[in-house]
Write a structure and sequence with these properties.
Residues 3-159 form the Thioredoxin domain. By secondary structure, the chain is an alpha/beta fold. Helix content is 30%, strand content 30%. It is built from 5 helices and 9 strands, in the order ββαβαβαβαββββα.
C-alpha cells in the first residue's frame, strides 16, 4: 500500500556518503522536526534523471529552501558511492544524496517498482514528497515514463 498524505514516514536505515565512506542514517534523523522535500528517481546517471529531474532541483534549490525547506533529498535505489559520484557530477552539493541501496525505504513507502525487465531489478518509482516533522503533506507520483508532477518546478509551486 502506498503512503498517503497525512501519514508518517517510516524509520528506515539508509546510507549517505561521509568523509570516510558510506554512513548509516536513519530516516527519522532526516525528517523529524524539519520540513523536507524528497524526490526519488529510478536510477542515478540514467537519462531522464540526469538530464531533467536532478538538474531542476539543483537549479531551484535556493528558491525551494527559501520556502522554509530545511533539506532537499535526492534518493535512488543505488549505493552510496554511486549517489555521491552522481551528486558531484551534477553539482548537487545543496542536496542530500541518499542511497536506498536495497530499496527498503521505497518498499516501505509502497513506491517500489520491479524494473527487472530492463535489467535494473527493484527500483523506486519516480516521485516527490514534502514532509513536515516526518508527516507527508504532499505526494506526487509519476506515471511510468513521466517527469512532470515530481519536478522541482511543480514542487516549488506546491510550497
Amino acid at each position: 500500500m502506498t503512503i498517503s498524505v497525512g501519514e508518517a514516514l517510516p524509520n528506515i536505515t539508509v546510507k549517505t556518503m561521509g568523509e570516510k565512506g558510506p554512513v548509516d542514517i536513519a530516516t527519522d534523523d532526516i525528517f523529524k522536526g524539519k520540513k523536507v522535500v524528497l524526490f526519488a528517481v529510478p536510477g542515478a546517471f540514467t537519462p531522464g534523471c540526469s538530464l531533467t529531474h536532478l538538474p531542476g532541483y539543483v537549479v531551484l534549490a535556493d528558491q525551494i529552501k527559501a520556502k522554509g525547506v530545511d533539506t532537499i533529498v535526492c534518493m535512488s535505489v543505488n549505493d552510496a558511492f554511486v549517489m555521491d559520484a552522481w551528486g558531484k557530477a551534477q553539482n548537487a552539493e545543496a542536496l542530500l544524496m541518499l542511497a536506498d541501496g536495497n530499496g527498503q525505504f521505497a518498499t516501505a513507502l509502497g513506491l517500489e517498482v520491479d524494473a527487472s525487465g530492463y535489467g535494473m531489478g527493484l527500483r523506486s518509482k519516480r516521485f516527490a514528497l514534502v514532509a513536515e516533522d516526518g508527516i507527508v503533506t504532499h505526494l506526487a507520483v509519476e506515471p511510468a515514463g513521466g517527469i512532470d508532477v515530481s519536478s522541482a518546478e511543480k514542487i516549488l509551486a506546491e510550497l
